[in-house]
Every structure is written in structure tokens, then in C-alpha cells.
Amino acid sequence: MYNDKVIWITGASSGIGKSLALEFARQGATVILSARRADALAEVKAACDTVSSGRGASIVLPMDVTDEASLPKCVTDAVAAAGRIDMLINNAGISQRSSCLNTDMATYRKIFEVDVFGQIALTKAVLPQMIAQGGGHLVITASVAGKIGAPFRTGYCAAKHAVVGFFDALRTEVDQHNIQVSTILPGFIRTELSENAMTGDGSAFGKTDSNIAAGMDPDECARVIVKGLSKGKPEIGVGSGVEMHGLWIKRFFPSVLFKLMNKQYARSAKEDGFV
Questions:
Q1: Alpha-carbon separation of residue 239 from 128, 147, 148, 188, 229 (angstroms)
Q2: Known Pfam families for this protein (predicted)?
Q3: DSSP string covering 207-254, please?
């Protein structure tokens, strides 16, 4: 299905982004790989080119989504290199592991710059190109935390709730232009997300918390996501743990979910040493 399609993935240097890049390459897509670390992207490119069944090599386009002024040129460079952008997967992001009381406002602002404003700015830069070419597919990697409030993730939950709302509203505006919008809602996936998460003072958490360690394999996660995208699903929940049940519990029994999250607070504080 994705043979000769052009898929642009941010946050492609590791985790879900890397696994998505490999899965799309296997299915014949030309993949544009973006993140800040050019050396890591080069390794992903080599892996993609090895498994690719498509028309050519993947493309490395280093980029910082928080550098808003640079994004229009990045779009121009992407189109110049690949000819078009059939799908943009806004996957760049950073998480949090700290209590509200111990989190600096600068840390909250950083999370929003990366997880919200960076995604909005790049999407706005790509939209005119998709409209001009007659269609496309916009994707945002949100989280189950975009639907549920989880302890020690106040900033992350706020940011993911924000992008869920933004892309839900955007979906209604771009349907007339033959542009699809899909929101990915991962649960716990075995990535470096918690290692790179920000603590209250902005430093890295530096370890894998117990929920992430027990999560779904990222390659399996990517296969589920790509299957959902191929079907044009507006929301794609993906995960193998009990956290996925929280989506429907929140909808139908919100008070029950709040009590469960209170218990999760105590468990996380004890097991993972969050402060």
C-alpha cells in the first residue's frame, strides 16, 4: 500500500519513530527521517535502506522542531528531495517524571515547546504543500496520557491532551482538502522515553521506569500503527498493558479511573522513586 509513498517522520532517531521508519521502508515507502541527532539518523537510514522494498533510499533531514524559523525551509528541502509529502508523522516528543510541586515552570514550558508548539508549527508549514498536491495524511503521536491524567506526568499529560484537542479540531478543517488526520495513542512501549524524560529541574530522569520496561515491543507497536493508518483510522490505540483499558474506563466510569490513578501514584512513588 505504501509503495512509492513519501512518509516524513520526526523523532525518527529512536523508539517508535525508528520502528515506524523501518516498517514503512519494508512496505516500499520513501522515508524522510528527522530528529536532532544526525549520527543516529544515519544509522536508521542504513537500516531502512537495507530492508527497503521501495523506489529508493531513505532521506536524512536533521531538524529541531522547536526552531520554528527553520521549519519552512525544512519543508522546502523535504519536497525538493522527495517530490511530495504524502504523510507527516509528528512523532518528536519528550516526557516527564516529577511531581507538580517539584517541577520548575521552565520545565513545563520546554515540554510544551517540544510536544505541542513544535508539532503545530511543523504541521502548519506542511499544510500548504498537502493542499496544493491535493491531499495527504497528518499524524500525531499523542499518548494514552492525552486522554488520562497520570501521576508524575502533569506537564506531559497536559501537552498530550493539548495535541489531541488540536488535531481533533484540525481534522474538521482539512477534510475538505482530502487530508486525513490520525491520532496515535500509545500506552507503555519499550523505548527510551522515560530515560530521556525531564525531571523537575529539567535534567534527564536517566532510567527506565517499571511500566515502560514491561511495555509493548516498539516494532510490534509500529506494525499496529501502520495497519491502523492504512485503514484511515482517526484514532489508533496501541499497547499491551492494563493502561489501554483506561481509555474506556475514563469514558464510562471516570470516578473509578481517578481512584485507580490514586493507587498508581503510590505504586509509582515506591517502585520508581519519583519525586
A1: 33, 14, 15, 6, 16
A2: adh_short
A3: S--HHHHTSB-HHHHHHHHHHHHHTT-SEEEE-SSGGGGHHHHHHH-H
- How many contiguous H segments (helices) and E segments (strands) does the chain have? 11, 7
We report the CATH number of the domain holding residue 140 as: 3.40.50.720
For residue range 174-229, what is the model confidence (pLDDT) as tens digits?
999 999 999 999 999 999 999 999 999 999 999 998 889 999 999 999 999 999 99
Amino acid at residue number 213: A
pLDDT, tens digit, 9 for 90 and up, residues 111-169: 999 999 999 999 999 999 999 999 999 999 999 999 999 899 999 999 999 999 999 99
Global confidence as pTM: 0.93
Give me the residue label for grid cell 500500500.
1
Residue of 44, 24, 17, 26 whose CA lies nearest to 189: 17
Instruction: Please give the grid coordinates belonging to residue 77.
Output: 528541502
Q: Give how many domains the chain has, as a whole number.
A: 1
156 among known catalytic residues: yes
Residue 35 falls within a domain, yes or no? yes
Where in the sequence is the domain holding 149, given as residue range(s)? Answer: 6-272
Which amino acid would we find at residue 107? T
d(CA 205, CA 199): 6
Residue carrying C-alpha cell 522527495: 82
Out of 2, 108, 156, 265, the active site residue is 156
Q: Diameter of the chain by CA atoms?
A: 53
What's phi and psi for 184, nearest 5 deg? -95, 130
